[in-house]
Specification:
Blueprint: H1 4-17, H2 31-40, E1 47-51, H3 58-64, E2 69-74, H4 77-87, E3 94-98, E4 110-116, H5 125-138, E5 139-150, E6 157-158, E7 161-162, H6 168-175, E8 179-190, E9 196-206
The structure holds S-adenosylmethionine (SAM).
Residues 7, 11, 25, 52-54, 56, 73-76, 79, 100-102, 116-118, 121, 158-159 line the site of S-adenosylmethionine.
Length: 212
């Protein structure tokens, strides 16, 4: 299991040496995430967090369609700086957190949790357990959770790091029975170098009172 410092060093170096639109996970229009979020959250004042949002333009689109209670968390300060610089005077509309998700202490609870391509970096059972405990402490009852990981048969590494692929069975085993899967689908992402990567999206709802 890596330390927070080791993780941070990796990601700061990554964003200091690569521009945001040349990284393999770059999307100009995060269509799948946007569709899921808008369907799950017709109320635009709900509290949404993009976990490991990095320099993603998802936040720009969410501001554009009218969401008013937005947070982005990332372990890399440099990644968030790219997003803040791009958003300019819209940047103060967002709460920015430079933090390791595995040690995050939420300032309040969220109604929507979005994570594209962070959970799959958790390659040990302990890390995944820690993530799920923090997730459960960070969200309201009936919150929506969207997690996208590399799917089975997809890439085995991202950003030179080993990853763990997921399907609906493994993801639901990790999340546990307080989560109900509402929808899952695969997306074939094209990297800036035109390489196809299989992502699997999982949209769940949280029920704090579900019996063990
Ligand atoms: C593959 S990128 C995906 C970025 C963004 N979600 C997207 O879809 O464009 C993974 C992101 O997660 C961040 N990250 C990795 N491990 C993290 C952790 N333990 N806590 C918080 N952020 C993390 C990285 O800095 C990076 O920005």
């Amino acid at each position: 299991m890596k330390t927070t410092e080791e993780r941070k060093q990796h990601w700061e170096k990554m964003y200091q040496t690569r521009s945001p639109n040349e990284v393999s996970w770059y999307q100009t229009h995060p269509e799948a995430s946007l569709k899921l979020i808008e369907k799950a959250c017709p109320n635009k004042s709900l509290a949404l967090i993009d976990v490991g949002g990095g320099a993603s333009v998802l936040i720009d689109h969410l501001i554009h369609v009218g969401f008013t209670h937005l947070s982005v968390l990332d372990i890399s300060a440099q990644a968030l700086q790219y997003a803040k610089d791009r958003l300019q005077d819209k940047s103060p509309q967002v709460q920015w957190y430079v933090a390791d998700i595995l040690t995050f202490k939420p300032p309040h609870q969220f109604d929507m949790w979005h994570d594209r391509a962070v959970f799959h970096f958790l390659t040990t059972a302990d890390e995944r357990h820690q993530y799920v405990e923090i997730l459960k402490n960070s969200i309201n009852d009936q919150a929506h959770v969207i997690i996208a990981t590399f799917g089975i048969g997809g890439p085995e590494k991202c950003s030179d790091l080993a990853i763990k692929q997921h399907d609906k069975t493994t993801i639901m085993e990790e999340l546990g029975n307080k989560f109900t899967l509402l929808e899952t689908f695969d997306e074939y992402h094209l990297t800036p170098k035109n390489i196809q990567q299989k992502f699997s999206y999982f949209h769940c709802i949280f029920n704090r009172g579900a019996l063990l």
